[in-house]
Structures are given as C-alpha cells and as structure tokens.
Design brief:
By secondary structure, the protein is an alpha/beta fold. It has one domain. Helix content is 39%, strand content 17%. A 10-stranded mixed sheet has the order 4-3-5-6-2-1-7-8-10-9, with helices on both faces. β3 and β4 form a beta hairpin. α2 crosses α8 and α3 packs parallel to α6.
Amino acid sequence: MKLRSPVVALAGLLFVFARAAFADDSSALASPAPFPDDVADQVNASAHGLAGLASPGDEHPWERSPDWQAYQDWINGRWSYLNRVRLNAMRNWSSGALGDLRRLATVYYPFSGPDILYVDTLFPDSKYLLMAGLEPIGTMPDLAQLQQQGRLAGYLTQVQRSLYTVLAASFFKTKDMKNDFSGQVDGILPAMAVFLAHQGYRIDSIHYVMLHGDGSLTEHPAAGANGVQIAYDDGDRDDPRIALYFQTDLSNDGIGSNPGYVNLMRRLGAGVTYLKAASYLLYDDYFSRIRDAILNNSVGVVEDDSGVPYKYFDAKWEVTPYGNYTGPIALFKEYRQADLAAFYAKNVPSPLPFGTGYKFVASQSSILVARKRE
C-alpha cells in the first residue's frame, strides 16, 4: 500500500464520479410525502428546543421555563466547546482530505448509533446516509405536551445525560445507551433531532419503515418498524437529503436472519463508509459479512483504528494515514495492530487537527483514508 500521488488521486476522482453516476438504485427507498406545514413546524420547534435553540418562529412556552433555560445554558456551552475544539477543524480538514469522497451520493455508517453529527460534519454533501445500531428508534417528542404534562424537566435531564459523552468525547458509550435511550427518551430520534437542528437543517419528514431482506423499504407503523427515514434540508438543495437509521444486528448471525442492510448497500452501489468508535467488532470473523460488504461496496473508507483492520486493505486500496497511531485504549488493548504501527512509522502521516474516536485528544488520534484503486 502506498500514499496517494496526484495522478492516482485524479484517477480515483474520475472513478468516483463514474461509480456514483452508475449505481444509485434509490427505488429501494420508501417515498413518503413530506409533513404538512403545521406538523413540520411542531417537529422543528421541538427539535430546536431539544437543541437548546430558540425557535426561529414565535416564542414557545417552554422557552420561558427555568428548566429549559438551564438546559439551554448547558448544551450551548457544550456546543461552543465542541465547535472550538473539534467540529470546525473537522470541517476544514474534510474539505481538503476528503474532497473527492464528499462528492459521493451515499455514505454508509454501520455501528453509528444516533451519531448523525460527526458523519454530517465530514460528509455534508451526501444524498443518502445509511446508519445502523442496536438502539431503538423511539419517538420524536412534542415539548409543548411534555410541559403541559409536567414531564419536561425529567425529559430534558435524560436527553442531557444521553448527549454528555458524545459532546465531550466524540462517541456514544454502547453500555450507556441501553439506559439512556429507554424510559421517557425511548430511542435515538431525539438525539438525531438535536444534531440536525444544530447543523442548520429543517426536518421535512420522519417516517417509520421496514427494511426487508432484499434491501427494499416500505412504510410501516411505528410499532414493529426496524427503521426510520428522515428527510432534512438546509434550504440550498433542490431535494432533501435522506438519513436512514436501522435497528439491526450486523453480526454474521444477524445478517443471516435479515440481510437487508448489506443488500441495501448493494442496491445503492458504490459509496464511502465511515467508521468511528466501532468497538473493534470488525476485527472478529463473527462480523466478516458486514466487513466484506464494506470493502465490496465502498470506493472509500474513512475510519479510526476501531474499524476495518489495516491488513484487509490489500493492493486494491490506496491508504493515507493521518494523525498519530498510538494504539487502542486500555479497554481494547488486545487490538493493537503491529502492521498499522509499522505503516505509520514508514510513512510520514499528514496532520490530524482534531481528536476522534476513543482517543479523542488530537495528539493521540488517527484516521485512515482508504480509496479503492480501479
């Protein structure tokens, strides 16, 4: 594996455009109607409220609540810190390091949980985003109703607890999500709404869907649905962007029971895969099916060291190292990659101006950007 040359970069860019234009079977997706205006206004007002942002329309009653105002102070302080130490640097870095990959229509983000924030920061131009995790989808709250029922303070406290780690350290803790997304906050939708609001998007629709084994989607009642399809818009595009989150098991047994996620990857064709804080699951042959699907359906992979092990990027791939590979945290110490350490020692890595993944301090973080050579 070699560092990219300008000629290879140009060839890769042309290949990206060709593949993106060739494979886009978006007919597999559901085609729900957008929300009526009054429903969209209510959903977006609540999304802004969850994000600690004043609604762009009339003032809402929860904005006068001391509980919401205290929550607003907390989340706005966290967001100011996050922009300063991480998100602004990610935006600047990705515009150069990922310029060609950002033009792809589809981004795959397995093992994502509700983290639409970081993937959107790196890939702000995608049309489709496919996320997956074990956490329930849940429901989007109406903050006005919660306030009328006397449940607003408790709800905001649980949202605050669920967001604490991702705002401070760039990832959700898997074991914490089992508690954080149960109870009043019954799934990942509120966290996704917070991120979309803070990224400047308006939610056009939220529809529950069923992901079938062949990779197709149909609308489905919330009860029993295994996915949600969110259309969102920043006002600068002709069509809204589409984010899909699936509650699905990506182990070999899980994919054997329902191969819908990997078949949807095949239907949508060549995309870029993003992996962060993925618990080193792809090191295990028990996750070989999703690992193979990533390598077969991606023309680019952007990951920290918890993603696809370096050894699987064979001669078909050009790999560029960024940052410093300092090995896993103590919890995952058995997953240190000697060959990746040697790769970093042999090649002078480009700087990485932000922290990401389990080692979220910039000086200890690393990212690999792999591009398929064809």
